[in-house]
Each structure stands twice: as structure tokens, then as C-alpha cells.
Amino acid sequence: MTLPIHIWERGYRFTSASYVNKYLHDHYETLALPNPTLQARDKSTAFMYYLEHGKSYYSLSSTSPLEIKPLLLFYGLTHLLKAALLTVDPFYPDSTSVLAHGVSTRKKKKQQYLFFQDEVKIQRNGLCTHLSEKLFHVKQLENKKISMGDLMECLPELDKLFYYFRPTKGTTSVTVNGDTLLMPSNISIQDIKESFGDDLEIKWNNNMISIQRYNKHLVFPIRSHSDTDIYIPSKLSYIHFLPHLIIHYLLLYNLSMIARYETEWWGNLIRSSPTHDYPLIQSFLQSTLYSGPSLIFDYLESNQEKNPLLE
């Protein structure tokens, strides 16, 4: 299976050095960063290469065997995330502490290991926390332990598959009408206020909750599965406030580690598919092949929309 061309068509303009230079310059100027002209000129080439190399990894992963697919997808997403990072942080990497992945997992898996029950731990330093803070303004993630099952349940693209393995759905569909969100009234108002902030206008209408002045660039806990399908977790916890891209990063990190260091378990999973792990992992790898680049371009385009100089 090859990647649909339209995903990468969204990034064609970033293959122009003059466009990228202006794109970065205007962002750095808007952020009041020092020497925006110099910084943009210095980082334009790195920005373009991160996108180009990321695309190469994704292209290879689309036709690669499952055994190595997690490795290619993880490094593909990492390169795309670094490109996005340069739009807000021209000094990356300013120290060796941000070069590590910023995540750890149990190296030796226990007997009867299940991926769904496995955990990753977010480190104080490293790319994961740096991305979360710089791109999404999410802090205080260090030392958090998060299970793979909880991460997967955050993804609406896996919800239909999960339904075969558990009785309840992890996400609830919401409707977007301009700057208004409509969602079922069984979702806690307190959860909504904590999710979106107290300054929103919340109304009830025909058993639906209407949220006015919705910001279309809001990242959490909204999840998008396509241009028209928008979801919110049925029950909210701090995990649901992780940015969508960070969820993909954490899942791919652990899967890439397993593909590298847990060869016997990984091989058995692929060959015999003994548990629910296999269809969930397979479905995730298939969906992240498309949603990873799409989410990156959503981020880059949202930055462009906020800056009229680039329209």
C-alpha cells in the first residue's frame, strides 16, 4: 500500500526555500524572537530536510513488512515533529538534554506480556517533553506512567475495533457548526469546563450541549478522524489532554522498541496473532501512516492561518 499523494501535496509549498524562509521569519517575528531574519535563514534548510526525510520514512513504511514498520513510522514522525518544532523554537537543539527520546519503557517484558497493559514513562528531559511544551504548551508530564491501552483508547480511529473487545465506546462523536460544538448532554459539564476553559458559553438545547466560541485550533481533548468526524473522550482524564501527535509518538516509540529488542515476542505476535494486541497494533499502524503526516500539516497550516502575512 502506498501513501495517498494528497497528504504530501499539502506540503509542496514547503519545498520552496524562499517560501520556507518567509514562513519561519514571520513566525519568529510574531513570537518576538531575536534576529528573526537570521534565525529563519539558518533554520530553513533544516526545516525542509526534516520534512523531506520524514516523508521518505513514511513512504518506505507504506510498503515495508510489518516487522520493521514501527521503526520507520517512529523515525518518520520524529522528523516531522522536529520540523514543526522549528516553527516555534529556532534554537533546537540548544542542549544535549533534548536529543534523547524523552521516554522509557521496560526493556525486558514479563511472561504473558500484553502490549495493551504495557506502560511508558515520560522523562523530565528529552524530545517528548520538549515537544509537548513548545508545540502544545502542555507541561508537567515528567514521570507520568501511561499504559498503551489508555493511549489507544484516546484514538477515535480505533474505537470501532475496540467495541468488539469491550462493551463501551471510548469516544463520543460531536458536531462542529462554525464556532459551535454540539455534543450529547451526558458528558459532564465540569469535564467540559476543565477541558475548554470557563470563558466559553455553554448552553443546553434538545438534549445537546452547545459550546459557543469554539476555537478551531483547540487541540485537546478534541480528536479528529477526518475533516468531518470530530470526537471527544466519553470519560476524561489527564491522559485525554495529551496532544494527538504525542499519543502517536508514545505508541510508536514503544512499538519501535519492541520491534528492535523483543524480537521473539514481536515475531510470535505477527505470526500467530494470539491476543487482541495484534489487530489493535495492526490497525494503529495502518491509521498512523496517514494521520501522522495529516496532523503535522494541520499544525503547520493552523500556524499559517494565524499569520495573515502568509495567506
UniProtKB/TrEMBL annotation:
This is YaaC-like Protein. It holds the Pfam family YaaC.
